[in-house]
Each structure stands twice: as structure tokens, then as C-alpha cells.
């Protein structure tokens, strides 16, 4: 078994994902390490702020520095010096989010131009499996087709068909020892297509399941409504992964609806813009009102930024474009989300997630 369910509270779940590089308590937020690094942080710092699993990007690592080179140097764990669990996406989101680079899509795969040098490239389910096997991640994702919210129904229907076709082929492809494989359900917010995709992917049988093709431009209400009825359709004894949500309120909303895992670049990207996620809401440290503010970013946070430095000092670093400012905000934003997720997990175990959610000021 790759997943143990330990508690429920309504639709919300607490559990443990078991991987070759250790256990991951869920619900779990996964910091994004696109190019084999969570920007500005080293692995010890990630461990210190509570990260248990991180995400790597198949598309980018395939092109730079190349999955063969990473395999030669000990796989992704050895290459980046992180000894904990790693999930790698399939590259599908990158291919289809860079729609202007696509030359052709057919049942065999997708042909596109590399975002790095414009050279022709092709992804197939078999190549996605090969790359992720070489990287040696603990969780590999199936190659899928992710479309924007405004995609017409016939395109969504074709994406569902090909996502199932590709998942069938990748399920049979070789994996790294102990590597788990998650299937992805597509279909946007279309109830019929989403249900069809879930049924087809679940019937194939994977170690875990993801809801893809959401948070891609649809309204927040429609996205949450879809998660509310779609998540319970996924197997109760398997981990459920929502791809691409990282704001505090959104995290609590999908946890309440039965999601176990989620990732997003929001906390690190927000840090690079000079903003902090706090219990008061988002703070733009570039604002002049923080120039003489001696308080920490968040009174209740014990991260390195909050335990040693003032808002005024971090504002100074940000406005002077000092790297330390970005590092401190990155540490804080990730710690804030990791703590929030951990507290939600404890609330589920106590059976009072709704009360916790109501108490948290976001």
C-alpha cells in the first residue's frame, strides 16, 4: 500500500503517503523545485521549515541539464542533495501551457519547440516514463493533456480520450525501483467529461490520482464546486493530488473537499515580488508603511525571517534588491503554508477542521 488513511473529518482526510525515500504526512503542500532547486533555498533549509516532499519538473530537467546526466550523477536526489521524497510532473502541463510552441498533437504524443532554443522536440508517454525513471523520483506522473478553461467541449473530450490512451501506455512502461505512478483525470469543469475521465483513469489502476486541468482560468467558485463532487469519486484508499493551488484560503478549501496533496509556485514567486503571506493577509513589503515597522512578518511564525528580522529590515532588503530579502521571504512564505497545512492535518485528526478554518485569519 502506498497510502494509509488515518483520520477523516467530513470529506477532509489525514493520512500518510509511503515512498521509497520516506513517509509524507498528508495533507501535504509540496514546494516546487522546478529545475532541481526550490529557488534560493538549500535542502537543509527546506527540512528545517517542515518540507517533507518537493516537486521537480520533467520538462525543464529533460532539456537542462538532461535526464541522462542527472542519472549518471546519482539521480535527482543525489544531484540536488535532497534525501526526502520527490514528485516529478510529466511535462504535460508545461507543453500545453506553452501552447504557442506546439507543432502537432496526435495519439502517439506531442511535437513542440523547446522553450530553450526552439529546437523541435517530442514527448510521448514512453519518454515521460523514461525521463522520470532516470530522475529516480518517488512519484511519477502520467503524461496528460491540460487545456485552458476556455477550451471548447470537443477539445476537452479529445484531451480526455488521449489522456486515457497515454496513461494506458505509460502504466506499462518501466519505472525506477520503488517509483509510484499517479494517473491524472482531466475534463475541466465539464461534469460528464470529468466523470468519464475519472472512471477511465481509476479503472486502469494507479498508486494515486490527480485532478488536473483545474485552476487554469475558471472561476474559483466553479473550481471548488468541481473539486467538491470530483474528489470523492477518486478511490478512498489512494492519495488525491490537486495540481496547482498554493494560496492559503485555496489550500484549506481543497483540504476540506478531500484533497491530500497540492503544489504551487505561488509562495516562492510571491517572495520574489517582495510580498509575504501572513495571518493578516498578503503584505507588500515595498509599501512605505513598513519603513519603520519593527514587528516580524508574522507574530506567530518561527521561521528565520520572523525570529530575527523586522518588516522594516526586510523591506530595505527588498527595495535594494538584495538576495537575502528574497531568501527570507521565501523561507517565510513556505513555512507559513507548511505550518498551515500541518495545523489543518492536526485539526482533521481532532475532528474540528471547520472550526479551525473559521478561526484562521487569511
In terms of topology, how is this protein built?
Elements: E1 3-9, E2 12-19, E3 22-26, E4 28-33, H1 43-48, E5 54-56, H2 58-63, H3 67-72, H4 75-80, E6 86-88, H5 92-97, E7 102-106, E8 109-113, E9 120-123, H6 125-135, E10 139-141, H7 153-171, E11 180-185, H8 191-204, E12 208-211, H9 220-230, E13 240-243, H10 248-256, E14 261-264, H11 266-272, E15 275-278, E16 281-284, H12 304-308, H13 311-319, H14 323-350, H15 353-359
Parallel strand pairs: 4-5, 4-14, 5-6, 6-10, 10-11, 11-12, 12-13, 13-14
Antiparallel strand pairs: 1-2, 2-3, 7-8, 8-9, 15-16
Helix pairs in contact: 6-7, 7-8, 10-14, 11-14, 13-14, 14-15
Q: Which geometry do the CA atoms define?
A: globular
CATH top-level class of the largest domain = Alpha Beta
What is the averaged pLDDT score? 96
Number of strands: 16
**Distance separating the two termini:** 36 Å
Number of domains: 2
> What name is given to the CATH topology of the largest domain?
TIM Barrel
Strand order of the largest sheet: 4-5-6-10-11-12-13-14
Give the name of the CATH architecture of the largest domain: Alpha-Beta Barrel
Q: How many helical elements?
A: 15
What name goes with the CATH superfamily of the largest domain? Answer: Queuine tRNA-ribosyltransferase-like
Strand content: 15-25%
Oligomer: single chain
